[in-house]
Design brief:
The complex is a heterodimer of chains A (about 290) and B (about 270). With about 290 residues, chain A is α/β, with parallel strands linked by helices. Helices cover about 30% and strands about 30% of the residues of chain A. The longest helix of chain A has 16 residues, at about 160-175. Chain B has one domain. Classes of the chains: A alpha/beta (about 290), B mainly alpha (about 270). The interface of A and B includes residues 43, 82 and 88 of A.
């Protein structure tokens, strides 16, 4: 079953672009990575799905229900961790969490204590006294408190130290193992690579690629470097070769296509070294952005 | 309506309600404690008033006001109580949804499983409760002030009740107009300039309307819709103006719902 179905979703803020014609689906139990640089439209997409903003055109369904008409019903099973968390400054952490829990039909108190213990969050402090990272922890507990079926994480790790990041990822993996679907927006590719099964890449408001993360790494591009004497880029001028760089007699490039074609070219010259490897997600990503 | 939002909103305003209520009660008690002094020298007072230019008297809503009577005297301070209440109601109206947006807690609230209608209704009811509490304090302190300090002078209880009841629709106007304006502008950065502007603006309009005898200005300011001077002198409301006031408030509230349901909640930028 598709948990999220987005069809030709478009959002303009007046004349400025939010997102244009975005379509994708996320299946139940998936961890879907949503990657793009700042301003590409990641947050806009999430805010549309949470009906914090209204689409200019197109539609989105969550759990099979339209987000603009069934918002309250849908949000019963959604957890949301925004990139920057803001809570009522005068409240204590525990009061905020209880307030949040009061919206849901659940007995969340025990879970609240468990989660706070995992994230090492002091419940008796005032929100206004918390550091950025500690506010983020409140956000994490608040987002998971009511055992949602779908989690929206918008750049969730900013402000967390590496140890907390690891705990957080473990928490997300455990939730996912229980069947929770995760929508993970980020511009940090390493964490997407570690966690996600499928990724969508968004650029300037448009989806440029949706792919299985393995497929994206394996089937698309090879990163090739060839070292030889008096080597010029002309030696590998052929279709499928991109991003050619020459450095100290070593030629580096990306190649997409039949790998034998490259091997033939390599065979024709006297090389000192050859490597053919999978590009990192980072490199693929940069490639999409050039 | 959802009880948890209502309670949260109510609690967060409790301190403000106490402050406003105490201020208003203090003003009416202190001011009225001087009543017998004025009333005992009524002839002197009214003679002094006649020496003021009529424009000045009009600007303070004192035209034809007899400071020697209980309600004439009370009507004068009541104008300032109204000004207090206008600022308070304006604060609540302008801040009702805009504070959550400028402090960025709107994201939290609106990602809970509640509809925008529920959110706005709960917030409105909480604000109305707070205004109601202030009204109770105004009523009790006004009665107390008059009972304690009126001395041998009598007054028309019915007129006093009309005067005191007028605060409810009066506040509703500032709450509703404040709310709709806050939803019409893109972002309210600070509530106070707006509410002070609206309250004093309306007051000044009412004052100028007295100076120039201009009819059109009366139509838009609640200070004229519920002019204490008019109520005291006639023992009744100016019905068409009161109906106009109610119509404006209700349209403002209806428009607020319409706007809020369609509103894009601004994000951090």
């Amino acid at each position: 079953m598709s948990v999220i179905e987005v069809t030709n979703l478009t959002k303009y803020y007046g004349k400025s672009r939010g997102i244009v014609d975005v379509s994708f689906t996320e299946e139940e139990g998936e961890i879907f990575g949503f990657i793009g640089p700042n301003g590409a439209g990641k947050s806009t997409t999430i805010r549309l799905l949470l009906s914090l903003i209204h689409p200019t055109s197109g539609s989105a369904r969550i759990f099979g229900k339209d987000v603009t008409t069934h918002g309250p019903e849908i949000r019963r099973d959604i957890g949301y961790l925004p990139s920057e968390v803001f809570y009522y400054e005068g409240m204590k952490v525990i009061d905020l969490l209880k307030y949040s829990a009061s919206f849901f039909d659940c007995d969340c108190i025990q879970r609240m204590h468990e989660l706070s213990e995992t994230m090492e969050l002091d419940l008796n402090r005032r929100i206004s006294d918390l550091s950025y990272g500690n506010k983020k922890k409140v956000g994490i507990v608040q987002g998971l408190l009511h055992s949602p079926k779908l989690l929206f994480l918008d750049e969730p790790t900013a402000g967390l130290d590496p140890l907390m990041q690891r705990k957080f990822f473990d928490l997300i993996r455990a939730e996912n193992a229980r069947g929770v679907t995760v929508f993970f927006s980020s511009h940090i590719l390493g964490e997407v690579q570690r966690l996600c099964t499928r990724v969508g890449i968004i650029r300037e408001g448009k989806i440029v690629e949706i792919s299985n993360i393995r497929a994206l790494q394996q089937n698309n591009y090879k990163k090739i470097s060839v070292a030889a004497e008096r080597l010029t880029p002309a030696a590998f001028e052929m279709p499928g070769v991109t991003n050619v760089q020459v450095e100290d007699g070593t030629l580096r490039f990306f190649f997409k296509g039949d790998i034998n074609a490259v091997l033939q070219k390599v065979g024709a010259i006297q090389v000192t070294d050859v490597t053919i490897e999978e590009p990192t997600l980072e490199e693929i990503f940069m490639h999409y952005y050039e | 309506m959802s009880a948890n939002i209502y309670l949260h909103e109510f609690r967060s305003r409790l301190k403000s309600v106490l402050n406003w209520s105490l201020a208003v009660a203090a003003v009416s008690l202190i001011y009225f404690s001087f009543f017998t002094m004025f009333a005992d020298q009524a002839a002197l007072m009214n003679q002094m008033m006649q020496n003021f230019p009529p424009e000045l008297l009009a600007a303070f809503g004192m035209q034809g006001l007899n400071l020697a009577t209980v309600l004439g005297y009370f009507g004068f301070v009541f104008l300032f109580i109204l000004l207090f209440l206008a600022i308070q109601a304006g604060n609540y109206g302008f801040g009702l949804v805009s504070i959550e947006e400028s402090e960025l807690t709107a994201d939290f609230l609106l990602t809970r499983p509640v509809s925008r209608v529920q959110v706005l209704t709960s917030k409105l009811l909480a604000a109305l409760t707070c205004l109601g509490i202030t009204d109770l304090v105004v009523w009790v302190s006004s009665f107390a002030a008059i009972t304690l300090f009126r001395g041998k002078y009598a007054y028309e209880a019915g007129t006093l009740i009309l005067l005191l009841l007028s605060v409810i629709p009066f506040q509703l106007f500032f709450l509703g107009v404040g709310l709709v304006v806050s939803l019409l502008v893109k972002r309210v950065r600070s509530v106070t300039p707006y509410s002070l502007g609206l309250a004093f603006g309306m007051y000044v309009l009412s004052a100028f309307s007295g100076v120039f005898g201009d009819v059109t200005l009366e139509l838009i300011t609640p200070f004229k819709h519920f002019d204490p001077n008019y109520i005291v002198q006639n023992g009744a409301y100016d019905t068409p103006l009161v109906l106009l006031n109610l119509a404006v408030s209700l349209i403002a509230l209806a428009a607020s719902y319409w706007l809020y349901l369609r509103r894009d909640i601004p994000s951090v930028s």
